[in-house]
Design brief:
The chain is an alpha/beta fold. The protein is about 55% helix and about 15% strand. The longest helix has about 35 residues, at about 110-145.
Length: about 150
């Protein structure tokens, strides 16, 4: 059975977590919300999440630092920075840490969902490409052994 797309919401604001959870669940996503970076890391070690929505300002660490930590846990995870405090510095840092997106609060639900869908499509294409390359490698090795 295919597992639903998982989204990890990391934000210290309970209202934001609840709102994002409701928006994402209406689209059929599995959603887990946490309020700290440490909780996000622990959750990502227990389950694969396709997407992480990460607030820039967390209680225990900066959201951009969490990007690196989550990449260590799951390199294929899409990491989107969400902020109510946009600045050129935070945007540059997010890009430098390979964030897959940067979205401002208050969040436009349609914009967020479109960004997630675009990134999920890219994630699926990358996975299919990798599988195709492995299959080609195996076919080549089998032919060379024959």
């Amino acid at each position: 059975m295919k597992q639903r797309v998982g989204v990890l919401v990391v934000d210290d604001d309970a209202v934001i977590r609840k709102t994002l959870s409701q928006i994402l669940k209406t689209k059929g996503y599995y959603v887990l919300t946490v309020e700290t970076g440490k909780q996000a890391i622990a959750a990502s070690k227990k389950r694969f999440f396709n997407v992480a929505l990460i607030d820039v300002r967390l209680q225990d660490m900066g959201g951009t630092a969490l990007i690196d930590k989550l990449k260590e846990t799951e390199p294929r995870m899409i990491r989107i920075v969400v902020t109510g405090y946009p600045s050129m510095d935070s945007a540059i840092e997010a890009v430098n840490r390979n964030a897959d997106g940067y979205i401002l609060k208050p969040i436009d639900a349609q914009e967020l969902l479109a960004m997630i869908e675009k990134q999920l499509k890219k994630q699926r294409e990358d996975l299919e490409y990798g599988e195709k390359k492995v299959a080609q490698y195996i076919e080549t090795r089998v032919r060379n052994l024959a």
